[in-house]
Specification:
The structure is a single chain. Helices cover 42% and strands 22% of the residues. The protein contains 8 helices and 12 strands. The strands form 3 sheets. Strands 2-1-3-4-5 form a 5-stranded parallel β-sheet, sandwiched between helices. 35% of the residues are buried. The model has no long low-confidence stretch (mean pLDDT 91). The chain binds calcium ion. The site of calcium ion (CA) has 5 residues, from loops.
Length: 222
C-alpha cells in the first residue's frame, strides 16, 4: 500500500510516453504505461488509478473509445486527454465522451502537471467507497471493512470483481460479461466462478449471489 498517486499513461509515441513517465515519476507518481488502446483498457479495468492520461490516436482502440468503454464498465477515474487533435470541436467531443479535461499537443509541462493535480484533488474528494454485503469496499486499497470493523484484504482480481458487482447492485451479470469486463486476459469463464468462490470464502456465502442460469449479482446489504 502506498500514498503515491497512481497514473495510467496511454501514449503510442514511445519517446513521449517515456518522457512523460520520467517526468511524472519525478513528481512522485507511480506510473503504468500503455502503448495501445487494448492494453490501456486492460490496465484501466484491472487496476485502480487516481488519474488517467490518455492520447487519442492509438493502435487497436482509439483513446476516446478506451475511455467510453472504461466509463461504461464503472471506471470513473478522472481522465485528461492529451492529443494532437486540439481544436474546439475535438475538445468538446473529448469532454462529452467522458474526459474531465483536455489538452492539445504540443503542451506545456507545468500546465499539464497542474491540471493533473487538479484532477487528483477532485478524485480524492470523491469517496472511493462502495457498500457491499456486511461492510464497505475501499476501491482504492482493495479492502473491505466489515460492519464489525474488521479489515479484509482482497487481491487485485477479487477487488476488481467485487467492485464491478458493487457499482451496479441489483444488476445480474452474465458470467461472459464478467469474464470480459473483469478478466479480459482469461479465456475460460471458470475464472469467474473461481473468484466468486474466493470472495465468498473471505466475505461470506451471501456476499455474491448466484442467479441460476444467468450469472451473478451482489448480495443484499442487510
Ligand atoms: Ca498517438
Amino acid at each position: 500500500m502506498t500514498d503515491r498517486p497512481r497514473i495510467l499513461v496511454v501514449e503510442d509515441d514511445r519517446r513521449l510516453a517515456r518522457m512523460l513517465a520520467d517526468l511524472l515519476k519525478s513528481e512522485g507518481y507511480l506510473v503504468t504505461l500503455a502503448f495501445d488502446g487494448q492494453r490501456a483498457l486492460h490496465e484501466g479495468l484491472t487496476q485502480p488509478f487516481d488519474v488517467l492520461l490518455l492520447d487519442r490516436g492509438l493502435p487497436a482502440i482509439e483513446g476516446l473509445d478506451v475511455l467510453t468503454r472504461l466509463r461504461s464498465r464503472g471506471v470513473l477515474t478522472p481522465a485528461l486527454i492529451l492529443s494532437a487533435l486540439g481544436n474546439a470541436a475535438d475538445r468538446v467531443e473529448g469532454l462529452d465522451r467522458g474526459a474531465e479535461d483536455y489538452m492539445a499537443k504540443p503542451f506545456d509541462i507545468d500546465e499539464l502537471l497542474a491540471r493533473l493535480r487538479a484532477l487528483r484533488r477532485r478524485n480524492i474528494s470523491r469517496v472511493p467507497v462502495l457498500p457491499v454485503p456486511g461492510g464497505t469496499l475501499d476501491t482504492t486499497g482493495r479492502t473491505v471493512t466489515t460492519d464489525a470493523g474488521d479489515v479484509v484484504l482482497l487481491s487485485d482480481r477479487e477487488g476488481a470483481l467485487l467492485e464491478h458487482l458493487a457499482r451496479r447492485p441489483g444488476q445480474v451479470f452474465p458470467r461472459a460479461d464478467l469474464l470480459e469486463s473483469v478478466f479480459p486476459d482469461a479465456d475460460d469463464d471458470g475464472v469467474v466462478d473461481t473468484y466468486v468462490h474466493y470472495l465468498r470464502r473471505k466475505l461470506g456465502k451471501e456476499a455474491v449471489l448466484t442467479v441460476r442460469g444467468i450469472g451473478y449479482r451482489l448480495g443484499a446489504r442487510t
